[in-house]
Design a protein that fits this description.
By secondary structure, the protein is of the alpha/beta class. The chain has 17 helices and 13 strands. The longest helix has 56 residues, at 3-58.
């Protein structure tokens, strides 16, 4: 027998063997799938039985908000408390629950923090479910593949929440879209979502495709063709999964026109999606008087925002340094000008970031001109607002910008990034008048600040007046009306 014939014989034998094994393998796969389906159905039945038992015991439905950082003190937390307050005022026979990972505080302390920071008092107490494994969604746990790691971690955290309490209606108010199918298909809940910022966006894809360095696209990746291509494929696959998870939501609310465009392109659910601008405590700043400030000996620039990397406080400090240098060159004296950075620190990582920013101030020689105000009360925020001349905001593609609105309501001349919510929704002409300035880099920010300081006091006053008038559409009352209208279909599904 020739070698060719032997090879053909071997191939035939291997084919027969594989054919014999195929049927058992197919049966095994079918068995595993059946076991998996039965397991899912059993878990679903157990969870729904738990919900029905709770419902019978309490005699009323439960609405739960998933907000692991509800004590953080940022704009997203203000949305949470205003949303709960609006629902409590409208629906008196419903229980409200907040899933949180803030283990170092009590529920009463969280509510007291909401009162101090946001001037929000709930009509009735809410129940807090304290989650033990919030570390699973901490970005520091995933130095690489952070988006995927946090999303998988959110599923496990969502599972912990679901097993602790199965609600009738589940609302993700912090952007963990991968928890939505978990509560919908296993918990059998109606689900809604309020999206502050898409986990991934077409802008992020563009940054990687064009190999632009950003805080989430470091130099070693942007400088490598292979790594950039790999990351682009990873982002595209993740975007598909993100869209599938988000499309499970029965009602989708987004906080700005910028977020709307990205969510529509990813979740593809236009009939269920609406813009609900976040609540800004506009009225609380209206008692700050609008007066000409030409006689001020020291002008302050105020920045309001959590100390997160995307807020780009480094840009603020460097632009401020450039302003000081330019004005010193022209006048030859150290002019009365200071920068006040106000924000919340969620964890040790944020506190370390503040230390690095303080170090940058020392390096640039502006430490005596920059003040850091961490986790301040609402009263202190107003006090600092009343003394400031300029409001500063530097986040690229900020989803909305509550801090921008608050500065404008307080009568500050705002300088915000020329992108995202500030560009599309907030710093817009009002009755044909200017409401603020937009910038993109150190030079344009420094130039805008210099231009504001060089304006005649009456011209500055007119811009401040226009800005204050324009932000009435972002008030608490407008948010509550739009939020309740968007939530009405979901609330109607709750059986009394």
């Amino acid at each position: 027998m020739s070698a060719h014939d032997q090879l053909v014989l071997y191939l035939c034998e291997i084919t027969r063997l594989l054919w014999k094994l195929m049927l058992p393998l197919l049966l095994l796969c079918m068995l595993l799938v059946a076991v998996l389906v039965l397991l899912v159905l059993a878990v679903r039945h157990w969870l729904q039985s738990t919900r029905n038992a709770r419902r019978a015991r309490e005699g009323r439905p439960t609405v739960a908000f998933f907000h692991p950082y509800c004590n953080a003190g940022g704009g997203g937390e203000r949305v949470l408390w205003c949303a709960i307050r609006a629902l409590q005022n409208r629906y008196v026979d419903i229980n409200f629950v907040v899933y949180t990972g803030d283990l170092g505080v009590t529920g009463q302390q969280i509510l007291e923090g909401a009162r101090q920071r946001f001037n929000i008092v709930l009509p009735r107490p809410v129940r807090f479910v304290f989650l033990q494994h919030r570390v699973l969604v901490e970005p520091g746990l995933f130095p690489q593949f952070t988006l995927l790691g946090q999303s998988v971690g959110s599923v496990f955290l969502g599972w912990e929440a679901l097993t602790e309490l199965v609600p009738d209606l589940y609302i993700d108010s912090m952007g963990y879209a991968f928890t939505l199918p978990l509560f919908r298909y296993l918990g059998g809940c109606s689900v809604g979502s309020y999206v502050h910022y898409p986990t991934i966006s077409t802008d992020m894809l563009s940054v990687v495709r064009e190999r632009n360095p950003r805080f989430n696209n470091p130099d070693f990746i942007s400088n490598s063709l292979f790594l950039s291509a790999f990351k682009l494929v990873y982002y595209c696959l993740f975007a598909v999964l993100y869209g599938m998870a988000g499309s499970c939501s029965d009602v989708i609310m987004v906080n700005s026109s910028w977020t709307l465009d990205h969510i529509l392109s990813l979740w593809r659910s236009p009939n269920r999606t609406s813009v609900v601008y976040p609540p800004c405590d506009v009225s609380a700043f209206l008692d700050i008087p609008l007066e000409e400030d030409g006689d001020r000996k020291c002008h302050s620039i105020i920045s309001v925002g959590q100390f997160r990397p995307e807020k780009d406080h480094r840009l603020q400090i460097r632009a401020f340094k450039k302003v000081l240098d330019r004005r010193r060159e022209r006048s030859g004296v150290r002019e009365g000008l200071k920068l006040v950075l106000i924000g919340g620190c969620r964890n040790q990582e944020d506190e370390d970031r503040v230390l690095m920013l303080r170090g940058l101030c020392q390096e640039l020689g502006v430490a005596d001109r920059v003040e850091f105000k961490l986790n301040v009360s609402f009263e202190e925020l107003k006090r600092q607002m009343s003394k400031a001349t300029i409001g500063l905001h530097t986040m690229w593609n900020e989803h909305f910008g509550i801090g921008v609105v608050e500065c404008m309501a307080a009568g500050k001349v705002i300088v915000a990034h020329k992108s995202g919510g500030p560009k599309l929704d907030i710093v817009r002409p009002f009755d044909g008048g200017q409401t603020g300035f937009l910038a993109e880099d150190e030079d344009s920010y420094a130039g805008a600040i210099e231009k504001i300081l060089a304006l005649p006091p009456d011209s500055r006053l007119q811009i401040r007046h226009n800005a204050r008038q324009s932000v009435a559409r972002f008030s608490d009352q407008e948010f509550e009306a739009c939020f309740l209208e968007a939530m009405e279909p979901l609330m109607g599904t709750l059986e009394r």
